[in-house]
Write a structure and sequence with these properties.
This is NTPase. The protein has 32 helices and 6 strands. It is mainly alpha-helical.
Length: 626
């Protein structure tokens, strides 16, 4: 099994990206700078950041080497804090205060900075937890709130806070919080920056590099607080911030925080929101760097290295060195079993031959099906390995692991088609005639006929490539293979952990109660022609599951109808599949008006009317609407 952790071992050939980032950091003329390492969820951002850290400090345990101090933070760690901005700032200062080499040099400055951050936190929470309740207590003569404040903010000099709240000047103190909060915060930010620069100068370090990972796992509020903390350091000499995140999640969080509303033309509002998000990012991140998707050859190389890592243990180091050496001269070809055979012992090569050859033969469709995403590839292999063990434990004879691997690619990339094959084989003693016909049609490239007889889903380029890939499934009894995968047939095929946060957030936006215009904006601005094929299929599949779980929820049906209205692909087919799997009497009959409305827009939805049960309210309502 393979752990889903970031690593400084470069199995993806990503060192070239890390070297580029290090080169920017080492250019003193560029500093101060903020670099965004952007990529989809699971694309390898964390591994690149780890390689950057290793390139800058090597094995220095205190993060300090050749005048450069590197601090590595996981933004998700601060998720539970009431003020993630203050938590991040305090963590940075604490690294200086406790550093064996630097701590004694900057002791006075760290004390001042700690106090500054704590008062910043106080001001940040002022309205919610101090200003309003404390003012209420003051005006009504109450004093019982004082112990609460001392407990809530005990780290901010309790005696000082108590004196301010109990003394004769308490009213002025509260007034200053309420009326001059913004002015005071600006002053504190300026003072913080000045004090931080003094600390850097006194520490005598040449460069501070702060690496922040996993921002895209944070809630929008916490993500913005982390970004606001980083903004405090803009224009502070000798600093470089490197941020790893999915840009779609970052943009969504910024939009939620700063979006504008209005009754004017909705397109103007959307355009203004887009400018706000873009301006914010451009000011904060001077160097955006987007990670490319892995190619077929890179996926095959990654798969081979993962199996070498698993099978060879400590001896994997020699394979890794050979890989690095090869990549210096050849960045494009596959690095596979043929390249490492000469450095392996016979028994080591024997261990690898079967697994690597099976996966290598399927790497093109694995690349297509899993979108070249390293995390999904690793979890795919973990499931594959677990099922391989189950085959051996169950003592199944004549079981072909390459057949299992091929079916699993479909399982992860198109669960609806995977289930359809299950339905076919379950009534035909494991050998569905439909697969035989589909493979024959695919080999002749008869795409139109496939779409006409089966569905548009079966006629996509990705699925046709899957049908044509070896091994062919014609003539194979699939019952044992579906028995091995039965753990997934009653739940999510790919598992929620394999679905990116961006797609989950989009599904949530679609099915939450919203106005019709908001739903339309979500579909047109964030879904239609905005998602890659894999993400779009995942979104439609999740919607289908939500409808099956809760057919009585009008909002889910409305999401489907809006997607149909915008002529998004494969929506009607997905909706029909869901309708066939639910009690049609639970479907709100009021939806009949929605269907007739999109029908008036020349959207061909009449074919789905036939799917509704003829004795259901929705069927009768549709047929009674003029």
């Amino acid at each position: 099994m393979w752990a889903d952790n970031e690593t400084s071992d470069d199995l993806l050939g990503f060192k070239v990206h890390a070297d580029l980032i290090v080169d920017v950091i080492n250019d003193d003329d560029v500093l101060p700078v903020t670099i965004g390492v952007f990529g989809d969820w699971g694309s390898g951002k964390s591994s690149i950041l780890k390689i950057v850290e290793k390139e800058l400090i090597g094995n220095a345990k205190d993060g300090f080497k050749d005048g450069t101090l590197v601090l590595y933070f996981n933004g998700w760690v601060f998720e539970g804090y009431d003020d993630a901005k203050a938590a991040l700032l305090e963590s940075i200062i604490e690294k200086f205060a406790k550093h064996k080499t630097l701590g004694s040099k900057v002791k006075d400055e760290t004390v001042k900075l700690f106090k500054s951050v704590k008062w910043m936190r106080l001001m940040g929470l002022g309205f919610k937890k101090i200003a309003v309740p404390a003012a209420t207590a003051y005006l009504t003569g109450g004093v019982s709130l004082i112990p609460y404040l001392l407990s809530e903010f005990s780290q901010i000099e309790p005696a000082e806070l108590a004196n301010k709240l109990k003394g004769d000047d308490a009213g002025n103190f509260l007034s200053s919080i309420i009326k001059k909060n913004e002015e005071d915060e600006i002053t504190m930010v300026r003072e913080f920056r000045d004090e931080f620069k003094k600390m850097l100068d006194k520490s005598e370090i040449e460069k501070l590099v702060v690496i922040i990972d996993d921002l895209d796992r944070c809630t929008p509020d916490r993500l913005i607080e982390n970004l606001e903390a980083i903004k405090l350091f803009l224009n502070v000499d000798k600093t470089a911030f490197v941020i790893g995140a999915d840009p779609r999640i970052v943009r969504h969080a910024i939009e939620l925080r700063y979006k504008t509303d209005g009754i004017e033309n909705s397109s103007d509002v959307e355009s203004r929101n887009e400018r706000i998000v873009s301006d914010y990012l451009e000011k904060l991140i001077q160097v955006p760097y987007y990670l490319p998707k892995l190619t077929d050859n890179e996926v095959e190389t990654y798969l081979s290295l993962l199996f070498c890592q698993k099978e060879l243990g400590a001896n994997f180091e020699k394979v890794l060195k050979a890989f690095y050496l090869t990549r210096e001269n050849n960045r494009y070809d596959v690095f596979g079993l043929g390249d490492i055979g000469s450095i392996l012992e016979p028994e080591e090569k024997s261990k690898l031959t079967n697994s690597v050859s099976i996966i290598a033969s399927l790497s093109p469709i694995i690349t297509e099906g899993l979108k070249g995403n390293p995390r999904q590839i690793k979890r795919f292999l973990n499931t594959y390995s677990l099922r391989d063990r189950l085959v051996r434990v169950a003592k199944m004879s004549d079981f072909k692991m390459d057949v299992l691997a091929k079916l699993m690619v479909l399982e992860y990339s198109s669960q609806s088609l995977f289930r359809q094959i299950y339905d076919w084989q379950s009534t035909q003693k494991g050998e569905p005639k439909e697969i035989k016909e589909l493979e024959s049609l695919a080999s002749k490239n008869s795409i139109d006929f496939i779409k006409e007889k089966y569905s548009a889903d079966w006629g996509t380029e990705k699925i046709v490539k899957w049908l044509n890939a070896e091994p062919k499934l014609t003539g194979i009894d699939l019952r044992d293979y579906y028995w091995i995968t039965r753990d997934q047939l009653t739940s999510s095929i790919s598992g929620s952990s394999l679905i990116s946060p961006h797609i989950r957030s989009l599904v949530k936006k679609l099915i939450e109660p919203v106005s019709g215009s908001a739903l339309t904006r979500t579909v047109t601005n964030e879904i239609k022609d905005k998602l890659n094929e894999g993400d779009y299929e995942t979104l439609i599949s999740l919607l289908e599951k939500e409808l099956i779980k809760a057919p009585e929820k009008t909002e889910i049906h409305e999401a489907f109808i809006e997607l149909m209205s915008e002529k998004c692909p494969n929506v009607i087919e997905a909706y029909k599949r869901a309708i066939k799997n639910v009690d049609n009497n639970q479907i709100p009959f009021s939806l009949a008006q929605n269907f007739k409305l999109i029908e008036s827009k020349n959207i061909d939805v009449k074919k789905l009317y036939k799917v509704f049960d003829k004795d259901s309210q929705i069927y009768n309502a549709i047929n009674n609407v003029d």
